[in-house]
Design goal:
Blueprint: H1 2-16, H2 24-29, H3 36-43, E1 48-52, E2 55-68, E3 74-79, E4 82-88, E5 95-108, E6 111-119
Antiparallel strand pairs: 1-2, 2-5, 3-4, 5-6
Length: 123
């Protein structure tokens, strides 16, 4: 019984880590119909802005970089079917990844009419 009492809080903490809120796309869709001023107040000054034929486009860019260290392989190799002992090498090379999401809002008559997501980190 003592183990259950100790394990229960740990289990609850583990489940809290799994809680998932609304997706990024869902959060951005809430701005459709909102005044332009609301978007700027809540998301800040846009990174890019352009007006074409009376339609304004506000773009917000989120970008981060990730470095994934490589791994060094070790094992036993074979040469023409004959074992020749430990082999060094193989594994995976290091990777440098850029994660980017550009959110562009279309604004007509001072209200957001649509949005578009571009990039590999918009999920």
């Amino acid at each position: 019984m003592r183990h259950i009492i100790i394990a229960a809080p740990l289990l609850m903490l583990g489940l809290v880590g799994c809680a998932v809120g609304p997706s990024y796309a869902t959060r951005m869709s809430q701005y459709i119909g909102a005044p332009e001023q609301t978007v700027v107040q809540q998301l800040g000054v846009p990174d890019k802005q352009v007006t074409v034929n009376g339609t304004k486009y506000l773009a917000y860019v989120r970008q981060s970089s990730t470095y994934i260290p490589g791994s060094f392989g070790f094992g036993y190799g074979y040469d023409y079917g004959y074992p020749f002992g430990p082999v060094f090498g193989g594994g995976f090379p290091p990777e440098y990844m850029t994660n980017r999401c550009e959110t562009t809002f279309t604004v007509q008559n001072d209200h957001v009419t649509s949005y578009q997501l571009r990039g590999n980190a918009c999920g």
